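FAQ

Q: What does a record look like?
A: Structure on top, sequence underneath. For example:
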C-alpha cells in the first residue's frame, strides 16, 4: 500500500482586525457558573441529615481533598429547570461534614461552553440530632 500525502488548504485570517477584548467578553458571557445550592447555602453547618436530594448547577463532580469519606452523593438524578439545575441524590449522616467539588473538567453547557470556575468546592455539615423527648 502506498501512502499519499493529504494536503489541506488553509485560508489565512487577518487576526489584527478582530476585537480580542470584545471576543473574550462575549465568550465569558456565555460561560455557565454556579448560582446557588438548593436547600442551604454553601458552608452551612446545620443541614438536616434526612435530606435526600440536593440541587445545584454543574455535572462534573469530584471528591474533595478529604476523599470519598466526605462525599455524600449516591447518584445523579438528572437535570431539571430547562437544564439549569442538576439534582443529586445524597445519603447524609447526622453531625458529619461533607465536601465535594464541581469542576469544569467534563462539564459543558448545552451550547458547549465549560463551567466558568475551574473548581467550585461545596462544603456543609449536618446538624446534631435532637434527643427524642422523654415520655
Amino acid at each position: 500500500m502506498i501512502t499519499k500525502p493529504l494536503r489541506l488548504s488553509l485560508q489565512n485570517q487577518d487576526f489584527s482586525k478582530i476585537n480580542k477584548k470584545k471576543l473574550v467578553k462575549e465568550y465569558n458571557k456565555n460561560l455557565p457558573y454556579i448560582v446557588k445550592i438548593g436547600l442551604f447555602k454553601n458552608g452551612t453547618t446545620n443541614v438536616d441529615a434526612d435530606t435526600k436530594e440536593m440541587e445545584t448547577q454543574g455535572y462534573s463532580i469530584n471528591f474533595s481533598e478529604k476523599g470519598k469519606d466526605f462525599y455524600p452523593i449516591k447518584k445523579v438524578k438528572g437535570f431539571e429547570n430547562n437544564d439549569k439545575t442538576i439534582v443529586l441524590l445524597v445519603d447524609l449522616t447526622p453531625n458529619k461534614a461533607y465536601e465535594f467539588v464541581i469542576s469544569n473538567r467534563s462539564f459543558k453547557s448545552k451550547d458547549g461552553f465549560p463551567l466558568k470556575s475551574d473548581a467550585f468546592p461545596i462544603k456543609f455539615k449536618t446538624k446534631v440530632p435532637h434527643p427524642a423527648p422523654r415520655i
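Q: Is there anything notable about this one?
A: The longest strand covers residues 73-80.
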